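Figure-free illustration: sequence to structure, shown twice.
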Amino acid sequence: MSERFNLNALFGRKSTSTTNRSSSQESGLVIVKEEAVKTQAQELLSQAELRLSLEQKLNSLKSDLDLGIEEYQQALKGGLFEDREEVPDDQEEDEEGAGEKRKQAMQNRLNSLIKRAQKTKATLDSNEELPQPSQELSVDYTLPDGSIETITLSIEQKLQEFISFYQKTNLDLPPTFETDIQEIWSDNQAEIELAIQENGFDDLLIIPGNIPLPELADKMKMENGYFEGSNFTTGGSFAGAVSKGVDKTRIILYHNTTLPEIQQKTGIDVHLNITLEDADKLYQQHPDYYLATLEDHLILERYHFEDTGEHISDYTKNSGHLLPGTTSGTRRVDSYWYPSYGKLAVRARGLGGQLPSYGFRLSRSFEKK
């Protein structure tokens, strides 16, 4: 892959689609006048609305690409793609080829964005009728051995599962929760499908925004509760922890298994033994690409436990989770299931923190705009 990126060929031509929403709605929507009869046609989007949504996604992808290219060029100049031999005393030296792995990971993300943008622009330029959003997606994912796995996700089924889950845990949901989730699903369906196709995500979380962390921790408590590290309690415990990007309702795609099992099955790097500093850099570059907050982790842990009776962050299975999206004082948070105590451990460490039983979970987050 070239280390110079030119997006003019991709974004140089503007779409000629009409964006007059009022006139398009009159011609494109099927209006059912009888209030007692509610048909599927009432909920269909007009072609102009579908096209406008796709244009907005293309513009968003261009912004992400511009930022990604700038980050890549800075990393290239800063020597991030070279193996580090001199590091602080509390960190380990890079293994041979670590710099190249960082370079490949960043290139893969850029290639993914370019592929998504190309697909979106081709759809717009074709002027073909755009399909209506579907309640269910079936996507083929190619495993490293060449075999095909068909992954099917139904937003209707998952919504009912999570509403029941939150009722069981006594977590109050906002009144627009179901509507918001359906809107997120519809607005991001093409990106959701591509993310599954590229990464093999086989499950999703549905999470309400703006839930105070102390309340969420209380509702998500399992077995013997929590083991809080001293740095975490010094930082104010759950009431003092601060997370980014948890204010909005969101859908998160993820792999429904432990970190080593993800890597074994898909070949995806789960960053075992990575430092919190490097995890934080990955998170800052692409906050929507990782499950990085304590809020999301608590819901993941409890939901997985309710579904399987097992703990997805069991450190004895090398599946502890780094959570650089949540800070406790000046430190970053991490968490893992502590089987001998029957508790979920929550700790806070400096950026040099690093353990072989910890990794950084790849995911994909979509939120209400």
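We now fold a second protein in the same way, so the two outputs can be compared directly.
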Amino acid sequence: MTRPRALMPYVVATVLATACGPARYKTSSPGRVSIEYRYFRPWYVRDGVAYEASWARSGLLPAVSGNPRATTLARASRRRSLATWLIGMPSAACLGLSLGAAGEGDYGPWPAIGLGVCGLGLITTFFLDVSARRYEQDAINAFNDDARRIIPTPTR
């Protein structure tokens, strides 16, 4: 009878090998954009050319270039992603400062007001990021839908 502790390295190795490997999805037809994960980071792939999805989704714009509707959606995703960073970083710093001031206890009601404002900023950041991801997916879907209309499908 094997002991459960002896099997633990095999369980960990199996989980790491299956869950942490890069995705190898490739689009089936030319002219399509897909998201591929390389080194735990998303990349936009169009016709074999990979565009890195940086912290503000800037790689999406060249990946969907040539399609006005997809480009408009990609710009909206980029703007919302930038707003996520511009609101989220000060909100996180403000939250830390407010928690520190609340711990000292001699600042009156200001730490509580700061916690409320910073918390609201972080909640806004969450919703902005979710909407940026939706615009990203919409841009890719709009590009692929229009590519489907342009590229004739073979008939039998």
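Summary for the second example: The chain has a mean pLDDT of 79.
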